[in-house]
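Sanity check. The docking grid for adenine depends on where the pocket ends up, so I'm generating a full predicted complex first rather than guessing from homology. Inputs follow.
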Amino acid sequence: MHFHIMTLFPEMVLDGLHTSIIGRAEEKGYISIEAVNIRDYTLDRHKKVDDYTYGGGAGMLMQAQPVYDCWKALDEKITRRKKNEDSRKTRVIYVTPQGEVFNQNKAAELSGEEDLIFLCGHYEGIDERVLEEIVTDSISIGDYVLTGGELAAMVMIDAISRLVPGVLNNGESAQTESHADGLLEYPQYSRPEVWHERKVPEVLLSGHHANIAKWRLEQSLERTRQRRPDLYEAYITAHPPQPLKNRRK
Ligand code: ADE
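Predicted complex below; grid placement will be based on this.
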């Protein structure tokens, strides 16, 4: 999977993503991450990429020309590499607090793409006309405002990358973790058996796999009910409790 990030701060994105698991996944070739500086495409003599907004108002706006030319160069490069194997347009994700809110389902959906372009805005945003021409998806990482789209793009790239086959060492961990099935993950314990007079729940020491699985599901359900009632309601609606069979009268 190839990530392409259009930004005014390429080093910020690359520094953040070149470490730990995502960095290793890139070294091993499961993913690639490139950051393109939008400023390199401005036709302005002074390398300016922003200007005042028509109609007045505070702040500066990123102009259409450098954003469009940067996208065009990138999109053409990707299309050349694909060589007619895939005629679909590469999705362009505009990271913005005005977008649909990102979640695990969205991460899973996007992890199936071969290439993704992220467009990071700065200042007061980007001229609407270029957004209309190039953006396919507008996505937010939450109902709060950041100073730019870079951190939001990094969050999404991290969440998407770890769903790409091979990126995590143990394929199972992406399936059992929080949000994978709409529930929060159950509590987990490692050695020692007793720490600060707190004992690991007995069932986990029993070696009885069915009982352990049952205990974990109960813990997940209870944790989700307490901490995220919205997710709990959605889960119960999708998985209504089964009536008990063979019940004695
Ligand atoms: N840019 C600024 N705030 C943002 C947010 N919450 N999500 C995505 N991009 C943003």
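Relevant for the grid: The chain is about 40% helix and 15% strand.
Also worth noting: The radius of gyration is 23 Å.
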